[in-house]
Amino acid sequence: MKHTRRLYVTLIALAMFLIFAYFYTGRADNQKQNAIPKVGVLQLMSHPALDQINKGIDDTLKKNGYVDGKNVKIEFQNAQGDQSNLRTISKQFVQDNVNVAVGIATPSVQSLKNATNKIPIVMGAVTDPEGAGIISNNKKPGGNITGVSDQAPLKAQLDLMKQVIPNLKTIGIIYTSSDASATSQMKKMQTLAKKEGINVKVSSINSVNDIQQVGTALAENVQTIYVPTDNTVASGMKLLSSIAAKQNIAVFPAATTMVKDGGLATIGLSQYELGEKTGEHVVRILQGKEKTATTPVTFMEKGHLILNQKMAQKLNIQFPDSLVKEAQKKGQIIK
Ligand code: TRP
């Protein structure tokens, strides 16, 4: 009798121990997994704008106490402009069970979206999230994606072209037909220009290799060239601006970084700031303060004036005094 009771007690104690041990180690495992969150950053390709955006993201994470390797693991991947790389990396992020995935540029986000509808995705500069079929409502995303749009102030950019190029009647636009962001802006700019009685000639390219030929032909038929935030043109911007300059044609780009690569001028968004805003979304999601479904897409209104004096001299163009003063006060002048 005594023996049986002792046996029972021992068995119960053993069972309790096992149950406890099971839950305890289980929880410890979970904690280990969650202890250091993972952020996957997928950048479409390298060009100065996207590099700036990535830097803005990194700095903002740091500023908010997320130090890579210490209390966060940042998995950065560059797809080198390649579709199959985009797919492979997106799948990898899902396998690694990242806490947040960031896509820099439209194709990166599209690829992440195809890979997961659960993991929160933050858009790092997608011009037209609705137009690109990424989300159906910028104000109420509803799913696992929100973030930042880099929609440029097109009207201000058109006004700038009119101020710098006298009697502006014909603008050329060069863009990549497969680039959703560029296509959306091209159409908007076309509509705006038409309203002001300005003719738009549109030429499309498929890759950087087309810039030389298409750019040269376009420059022959227009007074100036406008380029949207086109990822392919951005990576070949130096080439485009130099072939246009050979025919004395200025290139007005949609982004400030492209003025540094030979564009004449723009009123554009700071690409670094776009990165900062993207990083803020990431931080809030990591802190549990933001849900993608209920967080509207961030749009940035304020453009910065940037003038390329060096290019202006080369093209024999004189910026109006008022513009130069404005750029000196709150913009930037490249000398
Ligand atoms: N808007 C582009 C996209 O959605 C990405 C982008 C951001 C970009 N800034 C740019 C492209 C500057 C060219 C130049 O894909």
Automatic annotation (TrEMBL):
Keyword Transmembrane: yes
CDD domains with a match to the protein in the record: PBP1_ABC_unchar_transporter (cd06325)
InterPro entries in UniProt: ABC_SBP_TrpX-like, ABC_transpt-TYRBP-like, Peripla_BP_I
Pfam families attached to this UniProt entry: ABC_sub_bind
Keyword Transmembrane: yes
Lineage top rank: taxon: Bacteria
Alphabetized SUPFAM superfamilies for the sequence: Periplasmic binding protein-like I
Record-annotated membrane-spanning stretches: 7-24
Keyword line: Membrane, Transmembrane, Transmembrane helix
Listed PANTHER family: ABC TRANSPORTER, SUBSTRATE-BINDING LIPOPROTEIN, ABC TRANSPORTER, SUBSTRATE-BINDING LIPOPROTEIN-RELATED
NCBIfam families: ABC_SBP_TrpX
Name the UniProt record assigns to this protein: Peptide ABC transporter substrate-binding protein
Organism this protein belongs to: Companilactobacillus formosensis
